[in-house]
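Lab notes, practical 5.
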Amino acid sequence: MNKIIMLILYYLSSIFLGLLLFTALMSTELFSIIDIIFYRGIILAIIAGLLLACANMVAMRRWRAWLDGPTALAATSLSLSFNLCFLVIVPVTIDRSISVFLLARIEQAGPQGLSRANASRLFVRDYVDGMDQIGRRFDEQLKTGNIQFHNGRAVISPQGQRFLALARMVSNLMHTDPRFLAVEDTERAMLDQPPPTRQQ
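Output from the prediction step:
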């Protein structure tokens, strides 16, 4: 029973220490040249996992009576998995979430609140245009290889097509909103139509 309790405490301690290492690395300028927080976070999570593995090797020498290699490996893997989940749920969500943006603007509005119409205007002005979200997404997809540019226009790449096929399969399986992954024929036709001219 004592060994089981010690193992549970060891696993929890590994998760906590790994999270501390990961958070500390994220707060530095390490790999700040990577401006996509998701990819930078993956690299730093792996580094945190390697640091934790070194710490576990030291712990194995100290507590060799009950701590062996497979247990230390499992604790390191568990910590890495937790950090990756934390990365997606917290930093990436804050960095990309429209809901977080909306909450911040509602807070900024104070006691008088914010109407839906004003929220829509703020969204377009501050989020879409002010933060250049379309340009930012274009840059991300170009760097990841999901799109290519021909004659100044973005074209889906074979890798991008494979990603969309996988995304649609997961969407169907998990019942996410299909509108993010489908464009109706009428909407697709409107994308290339010139704006209507005003009659004189």
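Observations recorded by the TA: The beta strands are 147-150, 153-156. DSSP finds nine helices and two strands in the chain.
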